[in-house]
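Technical annex B. To support the medicinal chemistry partners, we prepared a structural model of the target in complex with arginine, based solely on the information shown next.
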Amino acid sequence: MKAHIEALLAQTVETLKSEQVIPADATPRIQVDRTRDKSHGDLATNLAMMLAKPAKMNPRQLAETIIAKLPSSDRVSKVEIAGPGFINFFLDSGFLAKQISEIVADPRANVPAADNAQTIVVDYSAPNVAKEMHVGHIRSTIIGDALVRTLEFLGHKVIRANHIGDWGTQFGMLIAHLEELQAEQPEAVNSELSDLEKFYRESKLRYDSDEAFGEKARGYVVKLQSGDEWCREMWQKLVQVTLEQNQKNYDRLNVSLNSSHTMGESLYNPMLAEIVADLKAKGLAVEDDGAVVVFLEEYKNKDGDPMGVIIQKRDGGYLYTTTDIACAKYRHEQLHADRVLYFIDSRQAQHLQQAWTIVRKAGYIPEQMSLEHHAFGMMLGKDGKPFKTRSGGTVKLADLLDEAQQRARDLVRSKNPDLTDEELVEIADAVGIGAVKYADLSKNRTTDYIFDWDNMLAFEGNTAPYLQYAYTRIQSIFRKAGVSADALTGEVNLTEAAEETLANKLVQFNDIIQSVANKGTPHLLCAYLFELAGNFMSFYEACPVNKDDVAAEVKQSRLQLCAATAKTLKLGLDTLGIKTLEKM
Ligand code: ARG
């Protein structure tokens, strides 16, 4: 609807230009917003106030001219001027009602697929090999996956890229340690690898304390990089074990990643030498004290000198930045990406900006290809400090999910003691995992976020359980009515204020999904679904559906509002990667 009104206003601006009411070179940013107070209509614009000066008219007078030139639309019942020159639009309730019927009839709830589908790479999750996933990976994994689902729903070609840390000098000591284990206690290798944290710690301990071991480990780094077959095999085993363990977390989290989406740092390794040589040839990179460095005027160090970004160390090794330069180039050349969305925590902002500045200066990607850092803050405990275990260690993702499921089981059992064990497990898992995901998704990702079990598992407020409950409640309305949501007939009539409010909210779904896709901000969808559920509860209180004295056609109309709400809640939660239940 917003887009529709914006299009009407854009046409009007063109008319005003051709009639020389405003200068032909004016390029106003047409903005249409939802009104807070319904007595001011449904949507409003400040266009007349913005154009008053170039038009040399007072804003209210110009508003009148704009309204006179506005193309007519069956979606708008009334247009009014308010205050200093706002233009308020009242949506036509007949049109709204028709939209509700369309939402009920359309599996996509009236959200059109994008006319120009793009190829979009989403870089997310990205844990490191031979390490267990921990709380630090939750935000990237969950928010990135919500974007993947939203973009796919809109019909884009989405490429999931799990940029795992599978390359670097640490593999020398890991391989050396694995070799010893295989020689000394072959029967224990698998169980040792099942605790990757321990395996990593012990490798490091050996490396730091035993000179000969260290020597061997450094040798393996060189061998691995030069493609030695045995070293590759050992390395492959470590990667494989890590991926298998991560997959369990992804499956539990209902995250759509699998091993085919792995595009780790090692993938770009073969490109690095050539890139360094090319950047030197282009005069962008120079030798500096034995290392290869790109000096960027855009970034100044403390002394006000251009900042040097090292792309190759004195010992010949490459850096994280070199890999990300190659990675962006690859995403253009091999994946033909129109957009790349990086879900990485905000501490890596400068790293990405530097890599991308170099990529653009070198002309590795076309200008219109969009590289976007969708940054997020840290996950904090209730005390406002980084989220840790009681003993101060890093919280493993698997432990956190265990706790979520346990807490949800206790909670669901206390609310509904009659459930069978099977039902209990299904409901509690959807609620527990949904709660963890939603708590993260519903916060503006740019800030740090406080992890609090009690808040996220509450059945009131902006939580997953609240929305899941709203959805099941509508399912029970249909069971009671004895009809199915896709067998409804007759027209939708919006006679009560609560019906109109709900319908107005329902037709906003498309605008919200578009914003999430453009800005990478699922919290907008969460806020919307929460408001939608609230509007639904108010509607259901004011407008009975299953009472005996409700006329048949009123009942059919109201059931369509119920069906449109259920469909929107479900599609919304689906794009967030949160399960809905028929019963809870
Ligand atoms: N593995 C990295 C880390 O743990 C994140 C990688 C993010 N993606 C990228 N293209 N740099 O910090």
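Notes passed to the chemistry partners:
The longest strand covers residues 291-300.
The chain has a mean pLDDT of 95.
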